[in-house]
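Input sequence (165 aa), recorded before submission:
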Amino acid sequence: MVSNNRRDFIIKLASASAAIAAGGVLSACGGGGSSDLDVRFDYGVASGDPLSDSVILWTHAKEGDYAAPSASIALQWEVALDAAFATVVASGTVTTTDSSGYTAKVDAKGLTAGQNYYYRFKAGSRISPVGRAAPYRPAMWLTSNWRCSAAQTTRQAISMPTARR
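Predicted structure, token format:
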């Protein structure tokens, strides 16, 4: 049976008001998600190991004090054709943890050889510095490595001491 008296109305109104007020207070206690994290990208970003269609992207992301352990951090990564990230061509998520030293390593695939790309990592409202990477063109890379390897082998052969008889 539903009671519609003034006392029940005031109790329900007070309960609803308390729930609404507590919701705002409780969300400030850490329930706001990753946008409230104090993530630091003090070591910047790096790229390496380029192939014709991919490149490895790296960053170090830590929350708060570096001496103290922190929780794992979910990062979003983006690869774009322009530094303003208007044309994002690849993206995904990666998690840093204490066991990985709070480093994130991503194999960004589906890229075009010789094309310059810009990349960054994000944790909530925190954004890493922007890096630039380019997958290599196979013919140019092989030629330059061949010349370097041949020159290095010749230098090593010349500098080797002769065997004593």
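Checked by second reader. Strands lie at 39-40, 45-48, 54-60, 62-63, 73-80, 88-96, 103-109, 117-123, 126-127, 131-133.
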